Amino acid sequence: MTIISRLVSPFWKSLLAGMLAWACVGPAQAAYPEKPVRLVVGFSPGGATDIAARVVAAELSNILKQPFVVENKPGAGSNLAADQVARATPDGYTLFVVAVTSTINQTLYKNLNFDIVKDFAPVGLLIKSPNLLVVNPSLPVNNVQELVDYAKKNPGKLAFASAGTGGSTHMAGELFKLQAGIDMLHVPYRGSAPAMADLIGGQVQLSFDNMPSAWQHVQSGKLRALAVTTKERSGSAPNVPTMAESGFPEFDVSAWFGLVAPAGTPSDVIATLNTAVNQVLAMPAVRERFDTMGAVAAPTTPEQFGDYIKSEVDMWGKVVKASGASAN
């Protein structure tokens, strides 16, 4: 071996070893997130979905050191927002604040451009809450049975507001119509806030609104609460009876909200988001905030949330078909 070969050989050996190591390990990946994250809400500001999203987004920003920005895109019962996120790059920077509405829409709408199960990767459930049957105080009823009697004496004269076609606020009303045997007009709005504004103003007479957005108006005296839609009473409103206690034993409707990402989002990104979300839901201040809204923090794993979404699609599919409701 020559002197030159002895000098050069170690260099090339070192360079070759470095190249092999780089090929095996690959370039270091930046920790997620490294830029702002969008949380797309399918309803207008001020509704229950929007409120829950903003509470969680503020704390996620603190934990993950990047802005989590809520973006409202109302329309078609949240389908416009869902479709936008389903088509987004699956990198964790565009998330959908999914609600029970989307599992109802899977059957209610015949020509959706997305599948809420197949086209999304579940991150985690955020909160669950009952819907609240509320009426304008000018309506001469003080309980559910009086409302049924009034509706039967005045067929077609009652109008119930919802946060949009296909949501739990809509389907709870359809379920009530079926079980009570009454005739009411459904008036859909683009979110809970405008629905509540018209209910308070007397343009419509009642609503099965999500408790987080309706309860504040009951407390202020602008609306009268007749019942909660879950099997158990709400800890935030222990004096308000359930629909079951009011003569409808099979009535059980919950509103819920969670986070999903486009299908194909890396599993490590999903894991980071899920861990951070559950940290938020464990915070006493956040739990207290949700409690004042009549909601309960409901942490899950991504797998548990995925199973829950599938079960809700199945359950609401049966209700939609029984009611005959449909949307285009």
List the SSEs and their pairings.
Elements (H helix, E strand, L loop, with lengths): L2 H23 L11 E5 L6 H17 L3 E5 L6 H8 L7 E6 H9 L11 E16 L8 H10 L5 E4 L5 H13 L4 E4 L3 H10 L4 E5 H9 L4 E5 L25 E9 L4 H15 L2 H9 L3 E2 L4 H22 L5
Parallel strand pairs: 1-2, 1-3, 5-6, 5-7
Antiparallel strand pairs: 3-9, 4-7, 4-8, 4-9, 4-10
Helix pairs in contact: 2-9, 4-11
Question: Can you give a write-up of this model?
Answer:
- Strands 1, 2, 3, 4, 5, 6, 7, 8, 9 and 10 form a 10-stranded mixed beta sheet that branches.
- Helix 2 (48-64) packs across helix 9 (267-281).
- The chain has 2 domains: 37-129 and 255-323, D-Maltodextrin-Binding Protein, domain 2 (3-Layer(aba) Sandwich); 130-228, D-Maltodextrin-Binding Protein, domain 2.
- The protein has 328 residues and is an alpha/beta fold.
- The protein contains 11 helices and 10 strands.
Task: List its traits.
disordered N terminus, 2 domains, alpha/beta, 10-stranded mixed β-sheet, 328 residues, D-Maltodextrin-Binding Protein, domain 2
